[in-house]
Protein 1
Amino acid sequence: MGEEWSATCANCGYFFFVREGGGFFFHLLHCDKCGKEKTVSFDKLGEVHLRYLKGLKGPYCVASSNHDKEVQKTFQGDPISEEEYFKVVESLVRKCRCGGHYTFSSPPRCPKCHSPDVIKGDMHVNYD
């Protein structure tokens, strides 16, 4: 699932927090140009998310395990791989205002100068 950790920009020295991963019912993508966050609800993804769940070997997470197992048992659509799923999700999200694209793999960036050169700090929280 998701996590949050403190960071300091190696370029400008700005201190900030980075959130990655997402949650029980949404994904968290970042802009590949400025680092801005974008949440994408599983409900808004509709059938493509159900196809992804269908292809998993187990539930997506503990919080949705009953739902996920039911989808895996009863959903009639074809399963989709994680790679295919990520491509579809990224294609459905609008471009960032800065002109960049929201992706699952974008590195954390400083919110002040947008540098990807960040130093991971000691404060860390896992969201499972």
Protein 2
Amino acid sequence: MLTDLAPVDLRSREPISSEITRRLLDYLLSGAVQPGGRLPSERKLAESLGVGRSHVRQAIKSLTVLGLIDVRQGDGTYLKRTDSPLLPLAVEWGLLLGSKRVADLIEARYHLEIVLAGLAAERRDEAALAEMRRCLETMARKPGTDEFVAADLGFHLQISEAAGNRSLVQVMASIRTLLQVWISRVAYTPGTAPATATEHVAVFEAIERGDAAGAREAMATHMAGAAARLRQTLAERGEGTDDDGLAIPGRT
């Protein structure tokens, strides 16, 4: 019931977007809406929270990216069923809400992706390369769009597949939604797409020519750039990260 959804405290130091998302998350996990059930309208949610509909819309978009809810055009917004393969784990809310877990994610992804890039360069086949090319072409055509985000994520997942190590593929798949949130946080920021695309091309070219060392180096450069863009985006939104002790080689 909407009586469970208290108004947002606009005087709070927490960013409004984060607080609204957290309130909606608490509301959904409280059992007020059953899996597969329909959420109240944006208007009703906005009235209960005491905020504008645009803020509610942004929070819904974030929860959609995380895979918790499903927006059906012309029908409404529904809580996904518990068997949804993208239903996020607790740590995944951390990135969305500006948690201190961001530093751990950056470090873990840095090392994982470098290993995968090197293996992909040694084991890739033409089918894998063709899929990577397709992702790069989409990124070049669709900067700052949902298609760009999907292609960026697809590129990294294809590298993990090309690496040919099922254990590492499963690790990558387990953080798929996390990566989508990370990429989404940055991809819609004006001016970030060119650098991201350029870094991806360098990784691809090294994998294509079978240069494992070059692929690892190019991926390290990309991960450092991606981490810097994520930190900058979070800082600009007032969601700074506590990255003390973060072991990323080459950082100053």
Protein 3
Amino acid sequence: MTEKEHAPKEERVEDIEVDLEEYARDGKKPPLARSYRFKVNETLCIWQKPTILGREILEQAGLTPPEQYSLREKVKGETPRRIELDEKVNLRKPGIEKFRAIRRDQTEGEHYE
């Protein structure tokens, strides 16, 4: 028997770029793909792996340093969920529509005199 016959069956990588918003709208789970397209606020980002860290999402959108931003994941039919900077996000999770980043303000909009 060859080595391939002993190896566990792996999912085939589709040679496509998956638009997460489109898959969420259609209610389909994104396949294992060449790349994943998603939005952070209005910035379109493309990532070549099925997982990404919160900080990498912000960096892809040009929001640096990432420590100055709060990140939320918007999943279809759910309330937005906070994503930590070192949290791994599975881009193949069904329903991910987009990400929202908000600049952190230590005063949360309050003015001190």
